[in-house]
């Protein structure tokens, strides 16, 4: 089947377009002229690789590859350069009608050039003669090589950047854990301090009580225990110490211990250590509350927190990661406030998603910064105060949850972040 038939174009046979007076000898003459003007080396070969015809470029190529040989010594293609046409190329051409490949050409004049070789079987049943076109593609090849090298360099740079980013994310995580630990330490310190002081205050009335109850062994122990602070006379004179309301001290101490227990349990909820990467149905409000307790130390001197929780179903999520987002938004809100601010936390269910908003009446975000706040490392905070990863990480977490995070801000008035999260993750 002819080419024009294959591609369905209604094209007349080439012989038919030969103008009157243009016989095949003239056509052949013109075609030969045209072949000699071509930029590529064009050849006709027989089955054994002997040259039947070659155009001007081919003759120039043969000569530049072998300047010392005469024409008679260049009758076979292998005389030009061994390997210019390999057996396997010839085999493929006989099998499938054509072969194309790249060959390195190296002669006395032509050094280290790359040629594209295209071989086509012209005879019936993919036999001789074979047409060969040799094209110098050294420049294209060099460009391609350079492109490959650039690509490889880019890939290495990308890998380095990714690992640097991962490290930075890790550092950010460590930084927020550090921040969290400092806050928690502060929060625990207070109740522990007054529990300790209350216990100290209880030692004396307890010793008095035991004395009155006449339990000498215990009394001795206690006498010993308080002897650093009080001598015998003082102890005897301390009956009025019983007037201290022991019950008050105990109640207060229990409250302190309760507060510590709550912080520890919030910490556990916050980190969800046992199910760090697990998708589970979780209560968003519980996550918000435990996170709020964790960052309370950061917020309490700066803002009132106003909560307005709607009715929310459990949502499918990785709770520890959502808590990390809540923490980043709450800390950002608090950092945007100088003092006496208000942070609002609202939630509502809308169709198949829940919406959680965290707003503040802090300094707001300038319009020119707004498009960049989710970029990794974008921060307006002083060196050492912000890594600029909080929102980038939050964005990633919300995207992983198939949700969106939206922000509106008015400079000087405040900022509102809204998280929209699907109740169930798409399967
Ligand atoms: N509630 C907000 N009010 C005002 N500006 C905000 C608020 N939240 C974020 N921004 C701006 O967006 C920037 C990026 O926030 P992001 O949480 O990503 O980083 P950061 O807070 O600067 O540092 P990091 O969270 O890593 O400690 C902040 O530096 C700040 O300029
Ligand atoms: Mg932040």
From TrEMBL:
Group of enzyme by EC: transferase
Keywords of the record: Kinase, Phosphoprotein, Transferase
Gene3D superfamilies documented for this protein: 1.10.287.130, Histidine kinase-like ATPase, C-terminal domain
Domain named Histidine kinase: residues: 183-425
Residue intervals passing through the bilayer: none
Entry's EC annotation: 2.7.13.3
Classification via InterPro entries: HATPase_C_sf, HATPase_dom, His_kinase_dom, HisK_dim/P_dom, HisK_dim/P_sf, Sig_transdc_His_kin-like_C
GO molecular function list: kinase activity
Domain of life: Bacteria
Chemical reaction(s) catalysed: ATP + protein L-histidine = ADP + protein N-phospho-L-histidine
Name the record gives this protein: histidine kinase
